[in-house]
Amino acid sequence: MKVCERTECSFHKWYPLFKRVTIKSVIEEIPPEVLSYLKEDGIVLPVEANSNPRIPDDIESDYTVDWMDGNDDDEEDESPSFPEFSAKLKEAIGILGGEVFIKTNWSAPTDSSWITSCKTLKCKRLEDIYLLLNSSDRLMENFLSSLKASKDEQEQSHCIILKKWMDIHPGTEFRCFVKDNVLLAITQRDCSDFYQHISEEKFEIIQDITDFFNNNIKNKFSLPNFTFDVVRQKKNKVVLLDFGVFNKKFSKSYLFTWDELLEISSAMKEGDKAEFRYIGSETGIQPSANAFESMCGLPLDVKYMTNDFSLINLIQDEITQQNQEDDV
């Protein structure tokens, strides 16, 4: 993988070119002082995001037990304050309709949805945003990776992206793989469930995503090899969600293996359609990844790490059956 590939897949790099076919978003650069705050241990909300009213000192002293007796020298941590940055976030929430989804350059805090009041990634207040930013190991990994990143990546600013909230049915999300500007493969992203409509509309799904790629992405994205995620809301209505690196270190291949993707690329001829994989029956369906996360507060990647072997084996027969049906 070339140094610049991951940089080119950063949201703020591609959004200006593809904003017409993706979700309306606002991009804010994270100031150095906020980035330092996010790298610290613990969750201490900034003053602007603290919704709890302050209790007057004279009342608080009457009803508070001094659990730190004998440690009078210890001072209570003061809440930080980032008025300018917080004001920009609050303004963005308003611009985007009052409900937003957040992510950073490459990742969303999918591992910390359990910490919000609604147990989702929907943010309505500053408090929601700061809670997700502070509690996500995925985002922390992005922030800390800059310390050992290439010069190209180090010079790139960390950003927070606020997207207008859109309710997305998990059965409408697909990951697509492109090599040498050729659409090789499409896979269902939610590998934990069977969706009847995918089986019924598989040919229409392939056609809609292929048309979307040819009309809006092919030879327009800055890299020849990449992945991209879409949501197919309905027939002839596809929306771009994100771009990713064509590399197993950074991108999940879901119902494919990376070796299979390379084999498909080698065998593909001009005019061939992308190979499409999906869960075709309820046999061997895995527990919901979202339920796993909300109950345990663990990253989705951890869940898939523990189930990759069983998942691949359970669906292999189904994939073979699908290919046989398509050949009929």
Automatic annotation (TrEMBL):
Record's GO cellular component terms: cytoplasm
Record organism: Laodelphax striatellus
InterPro entries named among the record's database cross-references: CDC123
Pfam families in alphabetical order: D123 (PF07065)
Taxonomic superkingdom: Eukaryota
Family from the record: Belongs to the CDC123 family.
The protein's name in its UniProt record: Uncharacterized protein
